[in-house]
Amino acid sequence: MRKTMTALATAILSAGAAQAADFPLAGTWTLTAADRITPAGVREHDYGAAPKGRLIVDATGRYSLQIFKSERAGFASGDKKRGTPEEYADAALGSSTHYGTLAIDAAAHQLLFKIDGASFKNWEGTTQKRAYELKGDTLSYRVPTAPDGNTPISEWKRER
What we know:
The radius of gyration is 19 Å and the shape is globular. An eight-stranded antiparallel barrel has the order 1-3-4-5-6-7-8-9. The protein is an alpha+beta fold. It has helices at 2-22, 85-93, and strands at residues 27-37, 43-45, 52-57, 62-68, 95-105, 110-118, 127-135, 138-142, 151-158.
């Protein structure tokens, strides 16, 4: 019985590793930069000097992404239902989260984020395109230019 369970566990783990190899972005990624390029061409921090974030992608392309500004303020009341307008604005503008399905358009060299749920409701049900670079375990992509003229850039390092 023990040999059977061990063989089954090994087979499941091997199958999972083989599946993860099928989708090149599968894995857990840690945010290393969340910047923006201004209309003047200057690169600036978009989520503070030390942003935090995680991108988790499974073998089929399902993903969950979170980006947080480290310097965002906490709520003085300790209760998120009793924040000030400034605290709510800082919470909303100091984070970006979404989940859904990720695909790669190799010909166009773009990532396609099919967003099922997002902290910014307007993104739900949309497909967001991102020009990207993948160099080993480093992924970077550019978000399309925002109405203010800035172009956000996210950079990630795959955990091993």
